[in-house]
Specification:
Length: about 500
């Protein structure tokens, strides 16, 4: 056992080390004038004042004390929180360029090393994003060609749902098939058969990734990246993404063997041609590693968010059958039974449009935006944010604003309807974020959500297995995403 003097010496050394670190920490940010916030402890920051299981809720509580702009320390990292429409609009829209940096997300940064679209920064982000948007437009994104692909996949989905014969089923996999096959056709120029085991595995991986990054352990990992050396669910995440990257690499090799530089067929072809053109440029951002990560970004984002939104949406419609019935009435009146829904129908279906917006508002799929940074020293209101300051945006504060959406805790399509029953837009609706970092696939996702929902309700009535009033719509996990609870339902042919 330690002697008392030795024990005191150890305590003094630890305390002195903490004070030195704290001093260095404060000095590092002295040139800025960050907004006030809860007093941080050395090393651990404000971790004791935050609920790791629901950080978004913790920020809502802190905003009541510190207002719309305040500082929270995640470990030793000071992060400025923007809360409420005015502060968020001022940063992400009015001063979009200055707030366009991507903040660190250690669990993903460890794997992707700053490549791709979502987690990259600076010139590599600009070049990759610009190139990807151009290719996606060439591939028909936002045009009738992509709409036709979605409609074809929606018909495949209807056929699969008919095979359930009205028996109870978990909709998770089937609701993922349409968005996954649509983005796969853009990236790989092929779709998967619904019975393909590799397809099942891929979709399982996407759902697991989203679930894992939303767990408390991963929130903790992002605050304290040194947890990398401990056992935990981050290792499971690394393994899954490694398998996904291996799958993408196999697809790339197939493309290299069949590539016709004069006739690109899909995203990978376009990227490979760009790589060939820039092979003598040692500074080029168009590398094999960046191709793998960018493909993963598009594939993952193009599958997971839409399918999870649909899964949560159907649960809400089970809970509120009167809403589902009104959508079906509108489908019957505008589309009928003899043709498939198309995007032109949306402008004549204000109630359905309102329901889709309310689903996205209510589920609050990504409560806190992925972290931003300022790309230069920024004077914001009475504060000064040094270049590189991390910015956290509360999307919950927009989607659950009581003035904009009265009684926001209630699922109510009326939040997006005026007194005459016309669709009512809201500037607070930033479910896809806003500014320079807005979701690249927003247009595709909106198209998919409308066509999938209307196709399902054109052919089926949703039947719950329990009384609607007993259905619990509380997320099973809230982290990076709000994960819906598991459930089953019956698709009863109309």
């Amino acid at each position: 056992m330690c002697s008392l003097p030795m024990a005191l010496f150890i305590v003094l050394v630890v305390c002195l080390s903490c004070l030195i670190l704290f001093s260095l920490w404060n000095r590092r940010h002295a040139k800025g004038k960050l907004p006030p916030g809860p007093t941080p402890l050395p090393i651990i920051g404000n971790i004791l004042q935050l609920d790791i299981k629901n950080i978004a809720k913790s920020l809502s509580i802190l905003a009541k004390d510190y207002g719309p702009v305040f500082t929270v320390h995640f470990g030793m990292k000071p992060t400025v929180v923007l809360y409420g429409y005015e502060a968020v609009k001022e940063a992400l829209i009015d001063r979009a360029e200055e707030f366009s940096g991507r903040g660190s997300y250690p669990v993903i940064d460890h794997i992707f090393q700053g490549l791709g679209i979502v987690f990259s920064n600076g010139e590599i982000w600009k070049q990759t994003r610009r190139f990807s948007l151009t290719v996606l437009r060439n591939m028909g994104m936002g045009k009738k060609t992509i709409e036709d692909r979605i409609k074809e996949e929606a018909l495949c989905l209807i056929d699969e749902l008919k095979k359930t014969n009205g028996s109870p089923c978990d909709p998770t996999f089937l609701l993922s098939c349409v968005p996954c096959n649509v983005i796969a056709s853009v990236i790989f120029q092929n779709r998967f058969d619904y019975g393909d085991e590799k397809f099942h595995t891929l979709i399982h991986y996407f759902h697991e990734n989203f679930r894992l990054v939303s767990t408390p352990w991963i929130q903790l990992y992002n605050f304290f990246p040194s947890l990398h050396y401990f056992p935990g669910s981050h290792n499971e995440l690394f393994k899954i993404i490694a398998n996904q990257k291996k799958f993408i690499m196999e697809k790339v090799k197939e493309h290299q063997e069949s590539l016709d530089i004069n006739n690109p067929q899909d995203f990978i072809d376009y990227f490979l041609i760009k790589m060939e053109k820039e092979k003598h440029n040692k500074q080029s951002d168009f590398t094999m590693d960046n191709l793998i990560v960018t493909t993963w970004d598009l594939f993952s984002a193009g599958t997971e968010t839409t399918s999870t939104t649909m899964k949560y949406g159907l649960l809400l419609l089970l809970k509120h059958p009167e809403v589902s019935a009104k959508v079906q009435e509108e489908i019957e009146r505008v589309i009928g039974r003899d043709r498939s829904p198309c995007m032109q129908d949306r402008s004549r279906m204000p109630y359905t449009d309102a329901v889709l917006h309310e689903i996205q508002r209510y589920i609050n799929l990504v409560p806190i935006n992925l972290p931003h940074t300022v790309t230069q020293d920024v004077k914001f209101r009475e504060y000064v944010f040094p270049k590189g300051t991390e910015i956290m945006v509360s999307l919950t504060s927009l989607l659950y604003d009581e003035k904009e959406f009265p009684n926001p805790q209630k699922f109510d399509p009326g939040h997006f309807l005026d007194e005459s029953g016309n669709f009512k837009k809201s500037d607070h609706f930033m479910a896809f974020s806003a500014g320079k970092r807005v979701c690249v696939g927003e247009g595709l996702a909106r198209m998919e959500l409308f066509l999938i929902l209307t196709s399902i309700l054109q052919h089926f009535t949703l039947k719950p297995l329990i009384d609607p009033k007993d259905i619990d719509t509380t997320p099973s996990t809230i982290g990076l995403g709000s994960i819906p609870p598991s459930y089953e339902l019956c698709f009863i042919p109309v």
